[in-house]
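hey so u asked for the seq, here:
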Amino acid sequence: MESNIFEQKFVAVDKLRVELLEHLNSMETQHEEEEVSSQDVLTRIEKVIVGIVKELSTGHAPAFVLPNRSSWANVSFDSAIGLQMSWRRSVTTVRSDCSSSVTKFAHILKVLSTIYKLVQSNSYATKRDIYYNDTQLFGSQRIVDSIVDDLSCLLRIPRRKLHVLATSKGLISGALCYLEEDGTRVDCSSSSTAVPVSSNVGGIRNIVSSAKFVLIVEKDATFQRLLDDDLCSKLFPCIMITGKGVPDVNSRLMVRKIWDSLHIPIFALVDADPHGIEIMCIYKYGSVAMSFEAHSLTVPSVMWLGLLPSDLQRLRVPEDALIPLTQRDENKLSSLLKRPYLTCQPAWQREMELMQQNKVKAEIQSLASIAPGFLPQVYLPNKLRYGGWI
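ran it, structure tokens below
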């Protein structure tokens, strides 16, 4: 009897998985990430340096021509991939003979030199290590972070292949075990506390899981509450992950890694506000700044589980738990509605237009105003059992 009830819980989720797999199999071409060897990385860096030397030998001032990672003009949309870089439509030139850019030129050369040594010696460093290697030259950590991404984009090499690691801020818990690159076994279900997302997701192997789905949780506070409620084992065998707001690259890589390995449905639980929707879109379709790595960062199959603007009306969330949209919220919402991926998501568009019409937003925590345990005990079980996602 218990087994039968358990199976009924997941009829809608299992049906979604079948649909996702059928869609995956029907795609004529699978976009596979180009495999880049350490020698390829060294060769591409050497090519850049040779170009600089040639410029100097002919009496010309060398310059770096970088794709503009903040321009929508450099981005195209593919529903199977997300936002991806359209190379060299908009560029930024960093000249060595210009007072406004010579310092950045020096920064790029320094980081390029450091990366070359790391790859050559098969060692790794964090972006923080690179910054503290010459704090006077760089001035701030943000400069190093930006340059590492610029070089990854310029060389068309995934950042992890540059042997530069970023500290992860994300957490993961649930029915998941895997091996780190160094052979360390990680069991995400063995503790009441979450496991930090690996800083080297690319090195993870031997992924084993009995999970029926993945739940991306926008906020750390909500994630911790669901963890305290023992959601992953008490109610459903699942995997929970949070990027603690706007996700870092490692959290996004981890979601993609799980999708590639398990092909189970991935749901997003975010605030019913423009900021939460944008965070969900980053997991699903990517960001402009990292569009050059779309193939390894986006998961277009992500479904919006909640909190939906229509849920606020349907569940009669008390008015004192709703928050009026600010002008900034309205501007963000208008901007989101113009994004290219909204054309293939009419259901999302309707929800956002409803928010625009009602001029209110709500946090996930607003469900507690209905009843203290409403989120884990009623909202999530019913959403998953009856297919309440879009």
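The radius of gyration is 23 Å. Residues 176 and 209 are 5 Å apart (CA to CA).
lmk if thats what u needed
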